[in-house]
Design brief:
The structure is a homotrimer of 430-residue chains. The first copy, chain A, has 430 residues and is mostly helical. The first copy, chain A, has helices at residues 2-24, 30-62, 68-95, 121-142, 149-171, 176-179, 188-206, 230-249, 258-290, 295-310, 318-341, 350-363, 365-368, 374-401, 409-414, 416-421. The radius of gyration of chain A is 23 Å and the shape is globular. The interface between A and B is large, with 74 and 71 residues.
Chain lengths: 430, 430, 430
């Protein structure tokens, strides 16, 4: 009897459940959804936070051994600054924006969680903060080995507190670019091309390392510019790859329904395949054109593939994801040479992988997502890149003319580790 | 009044809830279960993906410093290849198998998620893909320092696209080994012994590094075969250990009920204790027999313990888990010497830790799980190891006879980093 | 009609749902809560487990290059020992304590999961075990380069099996310190100051490295005591920072309601901001006082900030969290010099970052949490630190007088790697 009662109840629940699906889309209660969504933000957030370590290792590995302690100090410092600035002013500058507007409010973030927001407001702040930190992480590698540490920290504070939040709010805060139909799922342009634009401005204002272009620009960092540790750079890219599951997957912003969590899974797959496409393309191009299978280009190929898929990791098929990543890898390969020909010294290759591949990925969105137009994508990319580049260029130039941004020639010769940090990076004795 | 109504409703819910438990086993709705199961796959998946970094660091640390860039390139390349191949053909070759059959279909994977599958199909693909990548990660270390990079990539494509999916489908796809009652919870044999068998075939066909066995085989890599970085190797093992919680815990395949999530916790505990048992056994044996507490053997002891518990991480008691791991560590210790006596050059000790400890773990399942017989375990181990070894041996031999698999003597002397990659691994200047 | 039925049912559910909130606080079923809580323990647990790798990298990076293999062996060994001991006796010694009592029972842990516990008992064991391991991780760095490995392992077994569980049970097991109103959310004192006290006792009994204080104590490790790898030390701190989200966030002990998961998010934010405050303070102090922006002090500043917020990561505002971390960083800075003046050789600076910053954080709890008194905090800190220091001092002294704890002068000169492990750490040839 009890058993039949159970069947009856289950049948009733199924009937009403399915009846409910017709209008309510999900059978998950609001509080359980709130918990799932918050957990997605927290889990994705610690994965993206981990990317700060990825950048630190990638950059430590690719700079010369006399500038490694400095790059470590810059990376842990910039991540600390990003947290403080994004709380103090950044979050509300982005999300306090009026609909279709240009700028939010200059107020610190405070927690506004309620059941109606659908997730913990704090978990969203945390997730958005680590994105903000990523933007400035991109800058530190490009400018390594010759920039003064405290002016770099000042720029990091300006970028994370003002420049990034303003342009990001144009889209994710519901500002004017969002209003014209621009689409950038997890930030190929908002985060990566923006970070690349700030790095490019800095590299131009700062100039190349002494002796870097004494002869015609080389394609590979060779003596005396040999990378200090390829395994650490490799570790850095694996960390970034892992963190990118949080970066893109968390940007679904919800995991409380069947549809949302299924989308997160699709995003994981496309993110992974695009990265693989970038690696294999870079490996093949470096072997076919350069003669050797260059591991540094493979590493940057992974990043380029990841950056390229970031603008739209949900709608592509697996094959499309591989191709988007592969083209990202190819763009990285050729723009690396392009920067050399312009004698722009990007120590770790961040501009090819983040700026150029990010633009590619953003412009490619309409190929797989028919709701998006090339016109809107083009407008958004130009607006954001121009804004970040110009403002960054002005900030770098003003800093150069006032407090100075470049270490002395003697300091550059002895290395930033001895000159600025006072700690050599590798005390390896046999 | 409102309060009493609440009590009444709660009481009613409890009554019907408990009534329901009698036949439905859980009170969690199908959609919430779907979300939990999918999150388990995604979370476990990024942990197992992270193991690719663990193998990269372990192998970078244990090879000599002239072959580190190459091992980094191989590891990021093989992980990229595994993703593409497992989508293109691997998944359906394994899971498209007829019940009790031998091989699935040669079709790309496509998403078949629905509420009835109980989890996102894509999250399952992702989780299974990272297992596939693990299998080939095991191979790269053994063959380091002398194999050509592109033939290795070709083998990686064959292993991840065909060899691994076929034998894995025999069990997890519901094929013939599954039908005879074989049990391998998370792949001691399907993944680890299989990867070890492929590595063993490669090591035999390829031969040892030049000068490795000029004299009687040594027990420890000594000059000129010193490991390039013990801390990186240690990091690699900690990464693998962490990732193994996903490897074994995710293999519960569900987290949407009290029973399932409780099982996942038990699996975490047993996985951790077995690893510890392997470490301590290897430490004690190396100290008692070899005189010094060899850290490399401790690291491989951890892996051996982890591999050994992987076939059955759920049924053992904590003490049994420690012992299974400890015996795994001892087997690793003695088979390391065994390989030396056969003059088989396994650069990182992958065959002792994955192949021999994997076989041990699989054969040990019936000790703690009375539903499993030694006969079925023995049959499964022999079938899978023989299949993978023979097919791999043929593939390696054909490749050797055609495109060649070994770098030149000059290249081996200068190191794979200079010869194949064109990037030295450690540009450390003082 | 179907649609209106849906609205009716939804309305009814909302009405009764809200009616229910009045007395039941949550609408999440007991089984779903159980799953969420267990997942929080497991996810937080693998993050804290990952901290074992963080300590291994931090310590590998900061010791001299002749003691790196040994520190790797110690770290993987101690983590293995912690698992075994905390199962064998530790857990029940802590949690089997009578209410308000002093010591639990000497019995192995066994799984007591049921729906009534609210989470998997095993997931709790796993989470508590990794805390136990953290305590002894703190000790290994301080005593590096001169302690014998097996006596260290013996101490690790005593600390993880007895000393830590006993004092931790006084609070988290519901013992006497808990009864007087002491508050230590995630263990600023129970874990970090306790680990620091055990390290301090060991450093005093063991004495400094040969030649470390031949002249007046230096503020920075200089030749011949240069750190072996700053990037590995930086990686270690990023790992610890990541793991700390599990350490503090998981200490909410529940994630199955809106309130709980919102609290976890707040804890993530405060943990992150406090670490940043510690980094920036240490950077500024080292630059203003020492002249250079010392990266090692920045790294220890992060740890000090994290340790300081650990006693109360929930009640502080973001600004308060930054300040608590910043003061922790300053305390670390000045107590580092203090230890030098006492000629206590703490190789990695663990005592300033864990012991002194941990005491600060615990005493600071009443500033933001009005339910806690300074008196109770002071009593708890003194009781725990005195207990751990005195017992550790006795254990170290007895071991010194019997089996010996210090390697020979010759071994210290050649390094622990050659003397005890037989494996050099960095086989880097060009």
């Amino acid at each position: 009897m009890k058993k039949y009662l159970g069947y009856f109840l289950a049948g009733t629940a199924l009937y009403f459940g399915f009846a409910g699906i017709g209008f309510a889309e999900t059978t998950v209660s609001a509080e359980v959804q709130y918990i799932f969504n918050t957990l997605l933000f927290l889990m994705s957030g610690f994965l993206v936070m981990w990317m700060a370590a990825g950048f630190a290792m990638l950059e430590s590995g690719l700079v010369t051994s006399k500038s490694v302690s400095a790059i470590c100090a810059k990376n842990i410092g910039l991540y600390s600054i990003a947290g403080v600035m994004f709380w103090l002013v950044g979050y509300n500058l982005a999300y306090g924006i009026p609909e279709g507007g240009y700028i939010g409010s200059f107020t610190p973030w405070s927690d506004a969680s309620s059941i109606d927001t659908g997730y913990s407001d704090g978990s969203d702040w945390f997730f958005q903060m680590v994105f903000c930190a990523t933007t400035v992480s991109i800058v530190s590698g490009t400018l390594a080995e010759r920039i003064k540490i405290w002016p770099f920290f000042l720029f990091a504070a300006i970028l994370t507190g003002f420049i990034y939040p303003i342009e990001m709010g144009w889209q994710w805060g519901g500002g004017w670019i969002s209003a014209i139909g621009f689409s950038d799922f997890a930030g190929s342009t908002l985060v990566h091309a923006a970070g690349g634009a700030a790095a490019l401005a800095g590299a131009i204002v700062l100039g190349p390392r002494a002796g870097r272009f004494g002869t015609k620009g080389e394609v590979r960092p060779l003596e005396p510019f040999a990378a200090s540790s390829i395994p650490l750079a490799t570790l850095g890219v694996f960390i970034l790859w892992m963190g990118w599951f949080g970066f893109n997957g968390g940007s679904q912003l919800a995991a409380g329904t069947l549809e949302d969590v299924t989308s997160v899974a699709t995003i994981y797959i496309n993110t992974n395949l695009a990265a693989g496409g970038g690696v294999l393309t870079a490996a093949a191009l470096s072997r076919l054109i350069g003669g050797k299978t260059d591991v540094v280009l493979m590493l940057n190929g992974a990043i380029a593939g990841l950056v390229a898929i970031t603008a739209e990791p949900l709608t592509p098929s697996p094959l499309a994801a591989i191709l988007i990543g592969a083209i990202g890898g190819a763009i990285m390969y050729f723009t690396t040479k392009l920067l050399f020909s312009f004698r722009i010294d990007d120590v770790v290759g961040a501009i090819p992988a983040h700026f150029f591949a990010g633009i590619w990925g953003t412009l490619a969105v309409p190929i797989t997502n028919s709701d998006v137009t090339f016109g809107a994508q083009f407008t958004g990319v130009v607006a954001i890149c121009a804004f970040v580049f110009v403002v960054s260029y002005i900030v770098w130039s003003v800093m150069k003319a006032t407090i100075g941004i470049r270490i002395s020639k003697e300091a550059e010769k002895s290395g930033t580790d001895r000159a600025e940090i006072g700690v050599i990076a590798y005390g390896i004795r046999d």
